Amino acid sequence: MKQETALIPYLTKRYLRFDKSQPFISIAAILAFAGVAIGVMVLIVAMAIMNGFDKDFERKLFTMNYPLTLYPKVSQGISEELLKELESSFPHLLFSPYLRTQAISKSGDAMEGAVVFGVDFEREKQINEVIAEALKESEISGRFDILVGSELRNEFFLARDSKLMLIFTQLEPTGLSLSPTMKRFDVKGFFRSGLTAYDKGYIFASLEAIRAIKKKEEGYYDGIHVFAKEPMKEIDSIRAKLPLEAGIVGWWQQNGNFFAALQLEKRALFIVLMLIILIASLNIISSLLMTVMNRRREIALLLTLGATQSEIKRTFFRLGNTIGLSGIALGVLLAGIALWVLSTFPIISLPADVYGSSKLPLELSWIDFGMILLGSTLIVLLSSYYPAYQATKIDPLSVLRNE
């Protein structure tokens, strides 16, 4: 056993040396090593960038969509009594009731569609960090004070304390016809979620103002936003407490198709980039096969001198693994350097008005990192096995007689 363990490392080191008589074999091994390293580096960096964009978008979407939302199944709405009952049953959760309506925001000749939420700003800022940040620089005290998004501010050239006309879908009788409800609001602050659709289309007003415009009965709401640290666990317990006239939905259910598409895109990217490592592994196969063919006489002599087929097989298997696994290690090191450089220096600058931040988002999950290492390792192991197996098929008598 000692002779076996000593022979395998000796032959591995010998075959790894640059062969001046057959430089193409060594060059193929170097290309295999470099190809695996580059493939692993590209795969890790690409997955980190894609994860970063996904998580960043998910955080923004999560903030403006809320973890859980209660909605009415009847036209009257969700009652104040149900809100108080839920607050009593789930003291660790945060609740913010709201009224919702649609409107057209108008400034001069410019108009934009808007979704207007009537909220209790004290409750809302506890569950919505975007609103909480906006209220640090704003004071909502009047009945018809509003918060608008940064994109709407830029489009309408709004300033703090400026007026904004909202034309609501509620109709009022005026003589012989019906006219939409119009109201001029005072702009008291601006919020920025990082998503253009929300920053242009969402407007937050007081509950009292929207209740008066919708002529909503006192004590009823269009829904309740719920903040929970673990919404997927809390949703079932809340649903059990709800009466038949109310339902609950999670943010992941509201955007299920979108996140399913993101996951499919991520898997497709992983498979495509893994093909780079697969192509690089072909160089491992060709390099080992050329080494086997070039060392046929040496292998035959070793077999006649007492070396076993298992030792020959393990030698070439280790040789391929040394090339491939060292390439993987170098790829991980290069990826770490690349991610550090991208996160430290502004090499890639993003348009902040589109992405909400000029910094490239990077986030590599341990699951993705483990899958990359597992997949690339399996490819290297499988690529090393076939040439190693072929090395054991050499017939010593035939080789020594002919060569």
UniProtKB/TrEMBL annotation:
Transmembrane among keywords: yes
Membrane topology classification: Multi-pass membrane protein
Pfam (any one): FtsX
Transmembrane segment boundaries: 24-50, 268-292, 323-349, 369-388
Subcellular locations according to the entry: Cell membrane
Entry annotated with the keyword Cell membrane: yes
Family assignment from sequence similarity: Belongs to the ABC-4 integral membrane protein family. LolC/E subfamily.
Protein name in UniProt: ABC3 transporter permease protein domain-containing protein
